[in-house]
Every structure is written in C-alpha cells, then in structure tokens.
Amino acid sequence: IKALASPNITYNEINNSGDDGLETSGLPTINYNNFSDNTSYDLRATMQGIQTIDAENNYWGTANENIIRNKIRDYDDNGSLVRVDYSPFYTDKVELLPVSNFISQTLAGGEIKFSWNTHILASQYLLYHDNQTGIIDTTSAWVTLDSTYLEYTATLSDGEYKLGIIAQSIDGEKSPLDSCLAIADGTPPTLLSAAGNTGHTVISATFS
Fold first, then answer.
1. Based on the number of CB atoms within 10 Å of its own CB, is 180 exposed (0-12), middle (13-18) or buried (19 or more)?
2. Is residue 95 part of a domain?
3. CA–CA distance, 87 with 180 (Å, rounded to integer)
4. Per-residue pLDDT at 147
5. Pick from 57, 85, 113: which residue ends a domain?
6. Which of 29, 84, 86, 185 has the fewest Cβ atoms within 10 Å of its own Cβ atom?
7. CA dist list (Å): 47 to 2, 52, 157
8. pTM more than 0.85
9. Are 107 and 180 part of one and the same domain?
10. What is the extent of the structural domain holding 37?
11. Distance of alpha carbon 90 from alpha carbon 35, whole angstroms
12. Neighbours of 144 (CB within 10 A)
C-alpha cells in the first residue's frame, strides 16, 4: 500500500505469503481479515510519523498476543514508525458478520415491510420465517434477493411471525442469522361511531 493511501481492507484471507502478508507505507484501515502463515511479518508498517494504523478486529492466526505482537512491525520495533493498533483481536477465524438493523413494520392489509442495512460482502440476502412455530428453519430460504435490495414487503396471514435474514457472499459463505418479530394484521378497522351536524359537511368518525 503506497504512501498517502488510506483504503479500507476488510474480509480478506492474507495467508501463505513468501514475504510479508501486508506491507504499507500509508494509513489503511485493516479490519476483519484473517492473517496466517506468512513467512516474514503479517503486517509491516514502513511509514514514519506519530499516526496509528487501525488494525483492530483481525485474526492473526493465533490467540497468543505475544506471537501477534512479533508478527507486526511498527513503532515497537522502530521508534520512528507509526503504531499499529491490533487490539481487540479475534482469537479464532473471522467469519461474516450478521446483517445489521433488520426490522419489520406492520402495514395495512396483512402486509409486512422488512428493511436492513447493507452488508459489505453480500451478493444475496436470504429471508426466512418460522411459519408461526417460533423456530426458524434455515435449510430453505423463503425469499432470495440480490444485494441491491435493502427492503422487502410481503403479505402474510394474520398473526405473529419470527423472521430471519442471512447475507451470502459470492463464494457461498453465509453470515449468522439475524432475526426480528413481525405482526401481520389484515383486519380492516371497525367503525365505532360517526357523527355529523345538519347543514355541515364535516363528519367525525371513530375507528378501532
């Protein structure tokens, strides 16, 4: 990575390099990657200065912090170099994170609208529901959507449902299930009362 470059490096397998896993003279953000079995350093910082490289939430091939420390070259090895902030770190391989902010909204006519935040690695979103059993079966998706979708509206029979969503990457890796509760209500409102005055065009109505 060249000087002055500050890319986001996420969800990569940085393994089995005959030299350094990653060498940077810039200030990238390095999160949620898996490093292992690189011959020299997993991460070598060559930029001089007082800045810090954000390298949190990676897996460095081990849970031993001393080994991790020795696989990173930065200020601790040469006081003129920038620091690498590697903590917190994963103690096991980084998997896909769940889809975030998966919520439901009850609409009229038994419709339910679902929405969620974009997942950086999703090529598809897989939606599931529990058929009102309280248990989501993820063996078969209820709806499959491409990654351009961030919401979906469905009409379901009246009742409470547990819905789930999984992000699937282009290589078939799946995120953990995220779920939410949803209520479908297709019952039209009931007119409780209506009143108006002779000579006026305004009618007041009250519905359930």
1. middle
2. no
3. 31
4. 95
5. 85
6. 29
7. 9, 10, 61
8. no
9. yes
10. 8-85
11. 11
12. 11
- Beta-bridge mates of residue 30: 9
Q: Report the alpha-carbon distance of residue 45 to residue 171 in Å, rounded.
A: 31
Structure-token pair, residue 185: 């209500």
The total of structural domains in the chain comes to 2
CB 152 within 8 A of CB 111: no
Amino acid at 101: N
- Cα separation, 49 vs 138, whole angstroms: 50
Convert the pLDDT of each residue in 139-152 to its tens digit. 999 999 999 999 99
Q: Which amino acid is at 29?
A: T
119 shares a domain with 65 = no
Mean pLDDT, consecutive 10-residue stretches, the chain (208 aa), reads 75 92 95 94 96 96 96 96 97 91 94 94 94 92 97 94 94 92 83 61 60
φ and ψ of 49, to 5 deg: 150, -175
